[in-house]
Protein: Beta-lactamase domain containing protein
Organism: Dellaglioa algida DSM 15638
Amino acid sequence: MNEETDDMKISILASGSAGNVTYIETPKHKVLVDAGLSGKKIASLMTDIGRDINDVDTLLVTHEHTDHAKAAGILARKYDMNVYANELTWDAMAHTVGKIPVEKKHIFDMGKVITFDDLDVESFGVSHDAAAPQFYQFHHNNKSFVILTDTGYVSENVQGTISDADAYLFECNHDIEMLRMGGYPWSLKQRILGDKGHLSNEDGADALMNVMGNRTKKIFLGHLSKDNNMKELAHLTVESTMKEHDLAVGSDFNVFDTDPEKATKLVIL
């Protein structure tokens, strides 16, 4: 028997360069952010955390890249989800997501807030090589959760928007030396390292220092490259940076790893 509470609950169903899906739950809504895996895999991950994908009513898409939008059309058609993205993202993914019933397609403009009953969702733009990439901050019952990956840097404007959240899913995409020494073509390395690429472990750690506050209790390290990073390396880099700033990791707050194929346990904020 499920105990009814007035809490926001989250699980990072998958995070990485191969696919990204996050689950957010309030008493009145069950929401996914991004659908970068197959519909079958997402349904399986939902089962792993004790939830049914048929109960999800809303999908928010951050941008059109396949590792974030792959199953958007499938989820809308098969599970009757309302799908939200900004207009340029809709245009960019129109040819890859297939036909979506017009009543299921919704515009979520960048920099706006949409209220879904007991859940306020705020969108904010990031710097990435997509049509109009935006991520989201969720507010419920005086708690907040921020998702921020796929950005080359974190602007002061974004820092101000997402400061002092209760929990973050934050990008630590690559170790700079692993990327430089690895087998990627130089053009791809330049793209990843650029202002419209991805945050390195060091950049992610530094940005976290600028946004964490007294409310912050949970940090999930996300979107790790399978070729240019390791969980242990990302975790060590972030925790070392925090300790340099005299932050009590494991006491005042906790840092969690994510996985491209295994969901984090459902946690209450």
